[in-house]
From TrEMBL:
Matches recorded under Gene3D superfamilies: 2,3-Dihydroxybiphenyl 1,2-Dioxygenase, domain 1 (3.10.180.10)
Keyword Lyase in record: yes
Highest rank taxon of the organism: Bacteria
UniProt-listed PANTHER family: BLR2408 PROTEIN, BLR2520 PROTEIN
Keywords noted in UniProt: Lyase
Presence of keyword Lyase: yes
Coiled-coil ranges per UniProt: none
Molecular function in Gene Ontology: lyase activity
Domain VOC: 3-127
Protein's name in the database: Lactoylglutathione lyase
Amino acid sequence: MPRMIFVNLPVGHLDASIHFYKSIGFENNAQFSDETAACMVWSEAIHVMLLTHAKWRTFTDRPIPPAGSSEVMLAISLIEREAVDAMSDTAAANGGTVDINPVQDLGFMYSRSLADPDGHVWEAFWMDPAAIPSGDQPGRE
């Protein structure tokens, strides 16, 4: 089995969250979805499990963070710079909040941050590794 990541997110309104994630390019895997959870697929290796608050509480007693707080920012790469803007526009039109952090344009990398309807933070980014200035590449001297 290949290495995969399953990001689990508590959501207040499962149907609205499914709609939001579908709108920005995720696909629903019905095999792992029911009335308490939805498996949303970004790629073969990346899946997001949207869990109702009741379902979330079956996994942990830790509190669900209040609206407006952030525990993580999940970054997802897109194949072209224009796709970052398109995802942000789509997110805004489907219940998300965009540009919650300043837009970053470094020439070789472009990113915009958005929050889903429950406030989970995502950073959509595009990067051209060949355009990174040589002094800025990690591991290069």
